[in-house]
Amino acid sequence: xxxxxxxxxxxxxxxxxxxxxPEVNAPLAFARRVASDISRVESDxxxxxxxxxxxxxxxxxxxxxxxxxxxxxxxxxxxxPPLRSGGIEQLVDEYLDAWTANVAPAAHALECxxxxxxxxxxxxxxxxxxxxxxxxxxxxxxxxxAIGDVTTSVDVGxxxxxxxxxxxxxxxHSVDARDVVxxxxxxxxxxxxxxxxxxxxxxxxxxxxxxxxVSLTDLPDVVRSxx
Length: 227
Known about the structure:
CATH topology of the largest domain: Rossmann fold
Radius of gyration: 19 Å
Strand content: 5-15%
Shape: elongated
Order of helices and strands: EEHHHHEHEHEHHEHEH
Structural class: alpha/beta
Largest sheet: 5 strands, parallel
Strand order of the largest sheet: 5-4-1-6-7
Distance between the termini: 4 Å
């Protein structure tokens, strides 16, 4: 039996809205504090453009970008108005507070990781734009101490499915890929990516005609059956 299970986070252990425009509009509030009476439509468009430009680069190269890069690109798009010390950091914090307000643990996530932690070492390997985000949510969801380690794309510099992020996680645990089962909801990032470095992988995303999805309720038995 494999001794380690590495989980994807968003969409696997956490349910979330992938929109980059949460109800509380932190970029708009930031712009009005430092710049002008910019409209919500214009602010949203500039925030969207900052994300789209960085995300397009990341899709081409595999290199991850940070929330700070998004915030600074947005700030430049509104004319680079003078900022007090820590202004960009405040925007990032306010945005993340708003974005995570409605992020919730996936159904049966706690029961699943508690079960698997009885005879496996568990970790999270997640694409994310801020290194604090996933550890905070793990604590908020009560997934500690079952999951005690997190490897993020923004820390490593490469996003899944690039092999560098999986290799970084393997080094953190000094474990061979053959002793790891990866669990995730995105086929390219969480199934093909881990398999390319020698891990087993279990798909927990939405079932399709060609891909059966495993529920978190059934996952412990599936992982143990892999040998």
